Amino acid sequence: MIDNETLVRRFFTEVFNEGNLEAVDDFIHPEHENHDPTAPDVPKGPEGVRQLVELYRSAFPDIRFEHEDTVLAGDKIAHRWTFEGTHRGEMMGIEPTDKTVTVHGIEINRIADGKIAESWAISDALGMLRQLGVELPE
User: Fold this and answer.
1) Domains in the chain and their CATH numbers?
2) How far apart are CA 110 and CA 35, in angstroms?
3) For residues 50 and 56, what is the distance between their CA atoms, to the nearest angstrom?
4) What is the pLDDT of residue 7?
5) CB within 8 A of 93, min separation 6: which ones?
């Protein structure tokens, strides 16, 4: 069994960065719950994670997550990350702009039975919208 930090890093590398959706079951607990105020509602478990990955990879096919910091506490792992990607597909109703964005975020994952069982994420969605050229009210 791999340690929690390696589990989370490999998940982001293999699934988000490389687009290996078949690997989702290797990393995500069958009862996984996603808590992200900027993400659409998705079903529990690996299927919900697949839907999120497909959403982001279709909007940013060259998406790359980099881990900046990691903190471990019991069954939880918190990590600060940055993702970069070029907006080449529809995202949140925004047609492709071909603009490259850099988005920062923090995620906490709870690990159970050697898999990611729960995720809480917060990211700079407002900054991403601004980088895409969306005009926002003051």
Assistant:
1) 4-131 (3.10.450.50)
2) 12
3) 10
4) 96
5) none
Q: Cα–Cα–Cα angle for 30, 115, 60, nearest 5°?
A: 85
| DSSP 8-class letter at 12 | I
Residue 137 neighbours by CB under 8 Å, 6+ apart: none
Q: State the pTM of this model.
A: 0.92
Token pair in block for residue 125: 């969605």
Q: What is the pLDDT of residue 138?
A: 74
Instruction: For the chain of 138 residues, list the mean pLDDT of each consecutive stretch of 10.
Output: 92 97 97 90 94 96 96 96 97 94 98 97 94 88
Side by side, the strands of the sheet bearing 100-112 are 28-35, 115-123, 100-112, 76-86, 64-73
Reduced 3-state DSSP string for 59-128: HCCCCEEEEEEEEEECCEEEEEEEEEEECCCCECCECCCCCEEEEEEEEEEEEECCEEEEEEEEECHHHH
